Amino acid sequence: MIGFDEVLVRYRSLERRELIRWVEERWVLPERQAETWVFHEVDVARIELIIEIRRDFAVDDEAMPLVLSLLDQVYSLRRQMRRLCDAVAAQPEDIQAAIRQALPGAGTDRS
Amino acid sequence: MATQTPYEVLGVKPDASPDEIRKAYRKLAKELHPDINPGKPEAEARFKQVTAAHDLLSDADKRARYDRGEIDEMGAERPRYSYRPHAEGAQGWKYQPNGEMNPEDLEDILSMFGGMGAAGARRGRSQGQGFAMPGGDRLYTLTVDFVEAAAGAKKRLSLSPDTWLDVTIPPGIDEGQVLRLKGKGGEGVGGAPPGDALIEVHVAPHPHFRRDGDNILLDLPVTVAEAVLGARVTVPTVTGPVAMTIPKGSDTGTQLRLRGKGIQRRGGTAGDQIVALKVVIGDSGDSELSAFLETWPEKHKTDPRRGMNS
User: Fold this and answer.
1) Residue A38: which of A25, A28, A48 has the closest Cα?
2) CATH tag, A1-59
């Protein structure tokens, strides 16, 4: 968990007003604390992600909300899939086997 | 200072051909070779840099990896700060499209498996074999300041732009303690109960107060006059300022105890605030005091370092 200025020190290419705008646009959701913002690890990782996709993929500010929204949806789906897999894993062996059997491609030995 | 890219070191464009890279390297290597520049450490350092840049860029494989950001200008593997473990980690919920996972989304997926979703779950329940899954627990973090942690507070935790949780911080909470809010986690599916919200509380350090178990420690600066003559001073505590008497003849390190002004315990009692005095000379060390002290020690011989001599 680090403060606003520490983020700017860590990412020298990032300008103050840019980071403020990212927070205002809700691309990054730091925790508000008194007069300032506190960035948790997930927020810092997200800042790095935004810097990267902007630099490496030339995603501009107009396309960024779309890109972030799609990414968030993918992660949301992955979470839901994980939940589902957990639920399957919690079933008795025979039910798990039945599900595995019913999956397309089941039976082909990939090992 | 930003590190130069190997392209900058050789003075070529990022899309330079292997031939251009080789030419640029040969030209620089000739200029900078240590045998031509004996006793010039800058030239030698530059030469090493140029050689390293050429080593990297003349190897098509390494050059491609560098361009993709997989290795750095020294050819070392660049650590990747991946977003994925965070997005899928405990705190990733914050960035989910609806803040919280929408149970209907899960039901959408379940319905793809042939009516196991909401409708199926409802139908199933009446038949006594419903698809039900309790909601998951959610982990959040919340930072409170020292005074809030000691005295308790009400905080609002933003889960997403539009949703929040009201959290009551009990007095005396310690760094890293986890609060459990029953039923405030993920929604259950098919009539199963929701999960809990787990809130990991972090206590921000305070500029003056420190915590020692149930006690709060405070260093209190006092003037020479207050220490020697005694005084009545105002002392900050986590529940507001209180008056305290400094006894005559106090010293740096003298500890005074303010009973019940420490951390709240369960059951209504509280620890103490322990005030350690620190005599400061500061502005009181003016010429009048100096003049007085010049004559004073002659009449009052004392050695505070007695017994330290080995």
Assistant:
1) A28
2) 1.10.1660.10
Read off the pLDDT band of A107 (50, 70, 90).
Answer: low
Please tell me which of the candidates B88, B91, B161 has its beta carbon nearest to residue A41: B91
Query: If you search the block for the tokens 């059951």, which residue do you land on?
Result: B267
> Token digits for B33?
């070779």
Contacts by B248-252, CB closer than 8 A, 24 or more apart? B250/B222, B250/B226, B250/B277, B250/B279, B251/B227, B251/B277, B251/B279, B252/B227, B252/B277, B252/B278, B252/B279
Q: Tell whether B89 lies on the interface with A, counting CB pairs under 8 A.
A: yes
Return d(Cα B257, Cα B150) in angstroms, integer.
17
Q: Mean of the pLDDT values across residues B173-179?
A: 88
Nearest by CB: A83 against B69, B136, B158: B136
Ordered by where they begin, the domains of chain B are 6-67 (1.10.287.110), 134-206 (2.60.260.20), 209-296 (2.60.260.20)
| Chain A nearest-CA residue for B103 | A80
Helices (H), chain A: 4-10, 16-24, 41-56, 64-89, 93-102
User: In this predicted model, what pLDDT tens digit does every residue of B185-213 receive, in sequence order?
Assistant: 877 777 788 888 888 888 888 989 999 98
- Contacting residues for A95 by C-beta, under 8 A, at least 6 apart: A88
Regarding pTM above 0.90, the answer is no
Angstrom distance (rounded) from CA A63 to CA B42:
45
Are B304 and B252 spatial neighbours (Cβ–Cβ below 8 Å)?
A: no
Specify burial of residue B290 (Cβ count, 10 A radius: 0-12, 13-18, 19+): exposed
Beta-bridge partner residues of B175: none
ipTM above 0.85, yes or no: no
